[in-house]
Amino acid sequence: MSPDARPAALDATVARRMSLQRRTDTQPELMVRSLLHRLGLRYRVNYPLPGIPRRSADITFTRVHLAVFIDGCFWHCCPEHASSPNTNREWWTAKLVANVERDRATDDHLRSRGWAVLRFWEHQDPTQVAADIAIAYTEAAKGPHGSEGTSRT
Q: What pTM value is reported for the model?
């Protein structure tokens, strides 16, 4: 069964809980964004990625071509916290593998266009994540697309 052909839910409670999962503005994203803002960094949220329809980065610094993703452990198969549902296991396995493959394709596409890509897990310390992003931003700003280079938004 392909990940596109969603099977019928067997448990209404689980189906409801899954439907309420946030796709954007998750708690880890909000915490990191708040810290970045306090550091004086300005960014775009859920910015559409160039050349890839229907994909966006959680945090994007368009002037320096830096895309940041804060991946959920379940949805992106975290090596520490990934789990596999028992119900509709075949469908979920295909779905989660497709998510990871899409992530890698997105990373490759952005890098081929000269973008830096950072990925973090939702369980990582937001303070450290924001610090790592700030360092990457500073490095990217020194590069060809930063304040000394031409901005291509």
A: 0.80
